[in-house]
Amino acid sequence: VIKILGKSALPLEIYIFPVKVQGEGASAEIIQAIEEANRLAEKYSFDLLILCRGGGSIEDLWPFNEESLARAIFHSEIPVISAIGHEIDFTIADLVADFRAPTPTGAAEMIVTQLEKTRTFLVDTYRRIGLQIQNILKLKRQYFSTLAQSLSDPRRLLTNWRLSLDDLCNRMIRTYSGIITKNRRQLTELERRMHTYHPGNVIRNAKQRCLRYERELEIFMRQLISRKQKEVEKNMASLDLLNPLAVLERGYSITYLKPEMEIVKSSTQAKTGDKLKVRLSSGSLDCTVEKTRKRS
After folding, report:
1. Helix 26-39 vs helix 67-75: angle between axes, to the nearest 10 degrees?
2. Cβ pair 19, 33 in contact under 8 A
3. Where are the alpha helices (H) located in 11-153, listed in sequence order?
4. Cβ–Cβ under 8 Å, residues 112 and 8
């Protein structure tokens, strides 16, 4: 891995964290190295971690199947490339890592290839940006050159503006003269109409109308009062005809059965000994039933 990375023309800085890669305590050392790299990442600007070892039996590779190591790889802030054993060897670390390389050599070659592609992309991007800036500057120069050519002699511009101002002044004078003349005609017409509708004449006509309305209202009210008085007299006469007291005036009476004061309309309503009250046109009588007859 170091040999392949060292052949690259890119300025790579390689930091090695030596650890046990098999046997008892290997996974703990690998976890400690990953955590240490993350603590130093800001200081040394680490961009990538390569977790690699050569091939071996499944027992030799077993530390890379430990759950604790898988969690350490998962929680690493620095991207991790897993390059463990040969291409046919698979471990849990391969599944958790950000990228799996078939071999350590393959991991180094992949890094060099990607860095070369990135450098080529950046160089090409820088070149294209430079060309775009040159084109923009060229267009701006052409624009300002054209703008400078279009600018006239300031004295001639001032002369043109002065002529335009004079023309505007003359047009404004003509316009406002016409407006003033029109307003004068309107004012004359208003004065004529004001004379026609002088307040003295308006008030005098209004007084005359008020007097006429007052006379008409007085006549109307008299007629209305007379008509209503006749209606009241007619209604009073009708009420007198229907008044029970008027019937009593002709000699009739109203008999009540005590104590309920129920009007007696038939001899069957009373019996011997009942108390009666007889109302007359003037006063009333308290009577006692001595005998009842069905017919008079």
Report:
1. 10
2. yes
3. 26-39, 41-44, 67-75, 92-96, 104-150
4. yes
Q: What share of the chain is helix, strand, coil (3-state, %, to 5)?
A: 60, 10, 30
Question: Minimal CA–CA distance to 81: which of 61, 102, 114, 51?
Answer: 51
> Which string of DSSP letters, residue by residue, matches 165-183?
HHHHHHHHHHHHHHHHHHH
Listed in sequence order, the residues at least 6 apart from 38 whose beta carbon sits closer than 8 Å to its beta carbon are 76, 77, 78
| Residues 257, 243 contacting (CB under 8 angstroms) | no
Distance CA 88, CA 66 (A): 19
pLDDT per residue over 87-121, tens digit each?
A: 787 888 888 888 888 888 888 888 887 878 887 88
Query: Who has greater pLDDT, 202 or 129?
Result: 129
The sign of the dihedral angle between the CA atoms of 113, 116, 122, 128 is: negative
Note the pTM of the prediction, 2 decimals: 0.41
pLDDT at 223: 92
Q: Per the structure block, which two tokens stand in for 151?
A: 């600018």
Report yes or no: 287 and 275 within 8 Å, Cβ to Cβ: yes
